[in-house]
Amino acid sequence: DFKGCSPFAAVVYQINQIKIGNQVKHLPAHVFDSMYQLTQITLPNSLQSIGEKALCYCAELKTISLPNSLQSIGANAFRYCAELKTISIPNSVQSIGAGALAYCTALTEAKLPESITLIPEELFNECSHLKTVNIPSSVKTIGDYAFNACNSLQNITLLMGLQTIGTKAFKDCPITTIYIPASVTQIDATAFEGCKKLVKVVWDANNYQGTTCPFASSKTTIKSFTFGDNIQHIPGYMCQGMTALTTLKMSDQVSKIDDAAFRGCKSLESFTYPAQLQTLGKNILEGCTQLKTICW
Questions:
Q1: Contacts with 186 (C-beta within 8 Å, 6 or more apart), sequence order
Q2: Residue 102 to residue 75: CA distance in whole angstroms
Q3: Structural contact between residues 19 and 43, judged by C-beta atoms closer than 8 angstroms
Q4: Which residues have CB under 8 Å from 11's CB, separation 6+?
Q5: Please, which residues bridge with residue 203 across strands?
Q6: Residue 183: how many CB atoms within 10 A of its CB?
Q7: Is residue 162 helix, strand or coil?
Q8: Helices (H), strands (E): how many in the chain?
């Protein structure tokens, strides 16, 4: 690797095409860093790894084809490739470094491999035109700021197997609906900060271990909250302060509702206690000033 400096530093404004030889297995860190005029690069089928910042700041690179031999992509490898529009990462890739596609502001579509367990921190940070991306079923963790400020990302599908969602992972994304699968155990309180268009939550996380509401900053926009049929325990403060909430659904299987779970839901007009309810916390419906019907 080249210790923070491209070996082509003197000619970064002159090179616009690169072809890598068929025997090359590794692109060293920083090797093509800041090649501002590079529009085309051909990677061989022998390539196994792309180093840290190997193609960082290649601002004119619009497309890239990654070979099926590739196994790892280093941190910030494509950071600030501002003209890159689409990328498909092959299933051969086992790991992707932090910020690998951060600030790729023209990126509209990305395909992640079904082989990764971690979406690293800042992977798509401020990819403001990203509209389509998959979360593979193999993913267990979505890292901090992974989709921060993806201002065009309206839809995201979280699959069974996901366990943890990190700090500001989806901050400022214009998602309208989110489904939380049963496998999720931890969501940072700021994971959905600034999601001002979020109106519907479907919650299946029956082993959730968090102690704070993960939708705190969307309290004034969420209108519908559904707890799945597998939910037996509703954590404290889960829907506290959701002032726009008008639709609340939970099954009769719920046996425990913790403190202040629905406190301050000022738009809620009816509430039905589950038939199997055994334990009821304090201040469950405090401040629900529009309640007209309560059924036991």
A1: 163, 164, 165, 208, 209, 210
A2: 10
A3: no
A4: none
A5: 180, 227
A6: 17
A7: strand
A8: 0, 22
* Distance of alpha carbon 158 from alpha carbon 142, whole angstroms: 10
How much is the pTM?
0.93
36: region left, alpha or beta (phi > 0 left; psi from -120 to 50 alpha): alpha
Q: Is 2 exposed, middle or buried (0-12, 13-18, 19+ CB in 10 A)?
A: middle
Dihedral (C-alpha) 169, 172, 177, 181: value to the nearest 10 degrees?
Answer: 10
Sheet order of strands, 95-96 included: 26-27, 49-50, 72-73, 95-96
Q: How far apart are alpha carbons 150 and 124 in whole angstroms?
A: 7
Is residue 264 within 8 A of residue 290, CB to CB? The reply is no
Please give the Cα distance from 22 to 100 (Å, whole number).
24
For 40, other C-beta atoms within 10 Å of its C-beta total 13
Q: Give the dihedral of Cα atoms 105, 29, 136, 63; nearest 10 deg.
A: 50
Q: Which amino acid is at 169?
A: A
Strands (E) in 215-282, as ranges, are 224-227, 233-234, 247-249, 256-257, 270-272, 279-280
pLDDT in tens, 40-57: 999 999 999 999 999 999
List, for residues 186-211, the tens digit of each pLDDT value: 999 999 999 999 999 999 999 999 87
> 138 with 163: CB under 8 angstroms?
no
d(Cα 103, Cα 122) in Å, to the nearest integer?
A: 9
Cα 183 to Cα 105, 113, 293, distances in angstroms? 32, 20, 34
